[in-house]
């Protein structure tokens, strides 16, 4: 990875790409396209912050972020892919998956949360499941965010020292430092079995988050065959003259206190 992308360059290009994402969203709505974007990678690899930039200016009714918690006892008894099916997009929707069914090939495998039989069944079924999605017309894009062991530890320590971001750390996250090679082997095996022509893995070098976000969003836009959609201009009508409405007396005790005014003198 080259030197960190200058902030001014990053912000200008990010805004340009985000405008294109809005154009792509209009195409999705107009054509009824269905898009699933999977964000996978090591803990602290920068998946969440990239998703945030992708979704920042999109309509949340069109672009949904899916970040599922640990499965319930009932969900554990279901077909593994079953709970993910409920979150797949309908026509005109985009689903951004902050982790996905690939939990089984990563954290579940490394941490021993699934059996060998369940793991190997997943490696067999995942390509079949994804081919079914693609054959049904879903645009499926899979991104793996890569980061070095040094940078991962640096980000962990930064989170631990920041009370605003400490919630991002979990015991499993910290354990991933001691299981770096195990996660590497699991990722390599996952790629061998699930990097299929219908749904390829795209690896993002995210050592520099600015570069990684720009590269990922630019690549995403290049994978979707969207076209510019003519959007009707909206005219804001003039406000009509008053019809004699009298506002009732204000109940000041019901207003939120003007705390902001206290900041001016500070």
TrEMBL record:
Q: Which GO terms describe its molecular function?
A: polyphosphate kinase activity
Alphabetic keyword roster: Kinase, Transferase
Q: Where is this region: Disordered?
A: 234-254
Give the superkingdom in one word. Bacteria
Principal EC category:
transferase
Which Pfam families does the entry link to? Answer: PPK2
Q: Where is the Polyphosphate kinase-2-related domain?
A: 6-231
Q: Which SUPFAM superfamilies match?
A: P-loop containing nucleoside triphosphate hydrolases
What EC number(s) does this enzyme carry? 2.7.4.-
Role noted for this protein: Uses inorganic polyphosphate (polyP) as a donor to convert GDP to GTP or ADP to ATP.
What family does this chain come from, according to its entry? Belongs to the polyphosphate kinase 2 (PPK2) family. Class I subfamily.
* Self-association state and partner proteins as the record states: Homotetramer.
Q: What is this protein called?
A: ADP/GDP-polyphosphate phosphotransferase
Organism of this sequence: Microbacterium plantarum
Per the UniProt record, the lineage of the source organism begins with:
Bacteria, Bacillati, Actinomycetota, Actinomycetes, Micrococcales
